[in-house]
Each structure stands twice: as structure tokens, then as C-alpha cells.
Amino acid sequence: MEMRLSKRMAELGLCSRREADEWISRGWVFVDGTRVDVLGTKVSEGQKVSIDDRARSAQKERVTILLHKPIGYVSAQAEDGHQPAVKLFVAENRFHADHSTTRFSPAQKVGLAPAGRLDIDSTGLLVLTQDGRIARLLIGADSPVDKEYLVRIEGTPDARALALLRHGLSLDGEPLRPAGVDQLEPGQLRFVLREGKKRQIRRMCEAVGLRVVALKRVRIGGVKLGPLPPGKWRYLLPGERFVRG
User: Fold this and answer.
1) In Å, how far are 81, 138, 193, 243 from 143, measured between CA atoms?
2) Does residue 68 sit in the same domain as residue 136?
3) Over its length of 245 residues, how does the chain's per-residue pLDDT go in tens digits?
4) Which residues are tagged catalytic?
5) Which domain holds residue 214?
6) Are both 164 and 129 inside the same structural domain?
7) Do both 92 and 161 map to the same domain?
8) d(CA 85, CA 78)
């Protein structure tokens, strides 16, 4: 079965499809040892795909940012007068305890996009990246990365409500994947999800008679929010991995 070369490159984890098209146009992609520079080229799964060292160098220069998004900012494009979270990516907002040796440059804003969403009235860890591999890892339909949230609620869930939150609810006509849901103390729940439908946790709670009053994402895979203050950001460190193990 044949497919577009850019799609095959994304499946192999080499880059995003957008990056693949860019590299193909620059002549940085080889199929079975032959340079390919025509967009839309089809390949089969049995063919070997490799990339030029220049593509690897360009990829290494791409940055990934961990931001503690405050309430009032949207994850992506500006809407209803609210600013996108990327506006917080300025030198003066860099976390003073960032241990990365990467130097800030305004050029790092080019192509920097959120890998996932966090509602305007939610806080916590938001990933912004120039690296298509990370974006696909975090938001792809088959993403293996879970996300952990601390949720303040009004109401007291009984055993049935907790069971439904863990598995048994549907949103937008589709059943939700099993979730990890635990009551940490009266008025506080911990959710661990492997999907991210719009306002999912709030809608799940509403379905069982609970109201969310505060929501904070504290972990994405193996990367934790930690002591990062609201409105501050830091670079992802070389040893940090979203996929654990």
C-alpha cells in the first residue's frame, strides 16, 4: 500500500508532515538512497526513508517550552479579546530556576505552537513546541501520553459517580476512554486522562452532578509542572521525556 512520503515520515516519527514537506522541498529526504524533492511523492511501507544531516541539525535547534498558563489566556489563537498563551513567551517571563543552557531568542517564536489545549479558565502545564515530533506525540490520535489534573469541585461524588467518571460516560456522541479518577480530599479530585476533548473534565463532572470550580494540569507524561509559577516558562531539558520508561 502506497502513501504520501510526508505521511510515511510522520508515521516513522522522523518529523511532522509540515516539516516533511519542507525537507522534501529542500532536497533533504532520501527514499532507498535516492534524493526526493517532489511534494506528493508516494512510497510503500517497505521502502527505506532517510534524511540529510542538515535536517537533523535544523531539528536540534527547535525548542520546546513548558509554560504555566494562568487563567485568562487561551491556548492557541486569540479569541474574544483574550491573548494566546504564546504571548507570555518573552525573556522577562523566563523562570529564574530554569536550568537549561539554551539562550532565549525572539526567533524561537517562529512556528512555536501549543501541543494540546488548556481551557481559558484552567491553569497549569502547557507545552509549546517547534518540534513536530513532540506535537504529534502529545496530540496524535494514538498518543500514549497521559495528563494529570487536580480539580476542585462543588458537590460530593458517591461511588456510582466516581465509577462513571472512570468509565461509562460519553461526550459528543462518543464513549470516553477509561480515566483514572480519585478523590484526594473533600472537594478535590485527581484526573488522569489519555484524551483531550474540549472542556472534557468540566463536562464529565457536570454529567454526574458536580461543578468544577478550579482545574490545574500538573503533569504531561513524564514531565511535571513542578515549582514553575503562573505566567512563567522554561525550556524542556534534554533529559526530560514525555514518554516514561
Assistant:
1) 32, 6, 11, 10
2) yes
3) 889 999 888 888 787 787 888 889 989 899 999 999 999 999 998 899 998 888 877 767 789 999 999 999 999 876 677 899 999 999 999 999 999 999 998 888 888 899 998 999 999 999 999 988 888 889 877 788 999 999 999 989 999 999 999 999 999 999 999 999 999 999 999 999 998 888 999 999 999 999 999 999 999 999 999 999 999 999 999 899 999 76
4) 119
5) 147-220
6) no
7) no
8) 9
